[in-house]
Backbone:
């Protein structure tokens, strides 16, 4: 009975020492197998790739042997080199024994190697953890330093930003700061020292064809018009909001010889000049104050005129057959232009190149506070046109129509609702 119990004593078969012995045998066996297999695979793959380079591209040898080998040549190289490296790792202790431990034989390796094999992955993992913690500590430090520098520059530029928020132009804000010695010569930091910019509210001439759309191609102290020239290069989006225009602020005036405070559209034909139009996917003109608001020569798919109040209204669009429209340009489309706040003597968006229509996918004009001249939208082809919640008038009674939509404004879908005539005068100069 004792012999029978000993024979079927499963726990005795799987003692710790016996398991280690089995693992030792497996380690060396796998290493001894991988080494020659990897070398043979490397030799076969290299030979196949060399044969592919030397053989004529034709014949049964190429089709049956060379092509199959060469098509998996890199995979074969990776697998064979990986096998060699893994074999060397498994055999490394056996190879280093004669150098590191003279007089110690295979029996010592047989006893020590499995223990090291199980210990090394744990040590490697702990090393990765230490590196991760070190790396994350550096990242957190850099983030904290970046935030500190950002806060510092925000504090430095705050006088200039405050003046801009109060409605001063960039030029006037600079004059006040430097002339009044409110701060040192380096006050504006990243807002002015980088140059003039549409996004910071600087006047000037901006061109869709310019390498950097946000930087004016022309600028001077005497020129306070915000002008955008559009052409064959489409612009993804233009947004202008919260600005004062014309004579709406003290000391301002319309440019010499100009009547319109806001002028958006193409250019009519003249001697040597072929007429142009603005092509707009979606145009929004909203929440603005104008002496007059005039729409003419516009073909749109959808027209929405809602919630406007004017000191005299004449809305008479005609049915049309214009298609839905969106402006795209892929990788070469100009980026978005957006500005908020600022004072200009005029806003002017046009297509000034003969026979070349301007293109913008979305054009938004919001909260324009204008005085001294009309707001004019003309010579455009539009997908969706929205005229919303504007106040128009110069206080001369309902018999004179300040808000007009001409009969040459056409739309396939037209919505006109909640527009009212009320007595409205031009705003006072601020």
Residues:
């Amino acid at each position: 009975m004792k012999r029978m119990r000993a024979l079927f004593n499963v726990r005795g078969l799987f003692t710790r020492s016996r398991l280690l012995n089995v693992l030792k045998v497996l380690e060396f066996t796998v290493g001894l197998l991988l080494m020659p297999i990897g070398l043979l695979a490397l030799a076969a793959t290299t030979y196949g790739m060399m044969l592919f380079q030397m053989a004529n591209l034709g014949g049964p040898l190429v089709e049956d042997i060379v092509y199959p080998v060469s098509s998996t040549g890199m995979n074969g190289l990776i697998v064979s080199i990986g096998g060699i490296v893994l074999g060397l790792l498994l055999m490394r202790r056996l190879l280093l024994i004669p150098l590191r431990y003279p007089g110690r034989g295979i029996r010592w390796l047989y006893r020590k190697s499995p223990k090291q094999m199980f210990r090394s992955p744990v040590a490697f993992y702990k090393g990765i953890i230490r590196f991760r913690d070190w790396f994350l500590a550096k990242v957190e430090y850099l983030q904290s330093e970046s935030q500190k520098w950002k806060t510092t520059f925000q504090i430095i530029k705050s006088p200039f930003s405050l003046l801009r928020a109060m409605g001063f132009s960039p030029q006037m804000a600079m004059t006040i700061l430097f002339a009044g010695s409110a701060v040192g010569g380096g006050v504006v930091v990243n807002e002015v020292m980088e140059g003039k910019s549409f996004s910071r509210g600087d006047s000037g001439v901006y061109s869709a064809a310019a390498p950097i759309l946000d930087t004016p191609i022309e600028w001077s102290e005497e020129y306070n018009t915000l002008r955008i020239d559009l052409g064959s290069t489409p612009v993804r989006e233009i947004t202008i909001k919260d600005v004062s225009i014309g004579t709406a602020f003290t000391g301002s005036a319309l440019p010499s010889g100009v009547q319109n405070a806001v002028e958006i559209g193409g250019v009519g034909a003249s001697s040597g000049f072929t007429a142009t139009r603005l092509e707009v996917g979606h145009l929004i003109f909203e929440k603005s104050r104008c002496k007059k608001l005039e729409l003419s020569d516009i073909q749109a798919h959808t027209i929405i005129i809602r919630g406007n109040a004017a000191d005299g209204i004449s809305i008479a669009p005609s049915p049309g057959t214009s298609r839905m429209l969106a402006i795209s340009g892929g990788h070469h489309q100009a980026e978005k232009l957006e500005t908020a706040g600022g004072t200009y003597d005029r806003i002017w968006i046009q297509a000034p190149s003969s026979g070349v229509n301007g293109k913008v996918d979305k054009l938004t004009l919001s909260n324009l506070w204008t005085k001294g001249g009309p707001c004019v939208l003309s010579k455009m082809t539009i997908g969706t046109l929205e005229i919303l919640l504007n106040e128009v008038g110069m206080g001369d009674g309902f018999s004179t129509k300040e808000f007009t939509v001409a009969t040459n404004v056409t739309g396939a879908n037209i919505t006109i609702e909640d527009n009212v005539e009320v007595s409205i005068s031009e705003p006072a100069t601020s």
The longest strand covers residues 293-306. The mean pLDDT is 77.
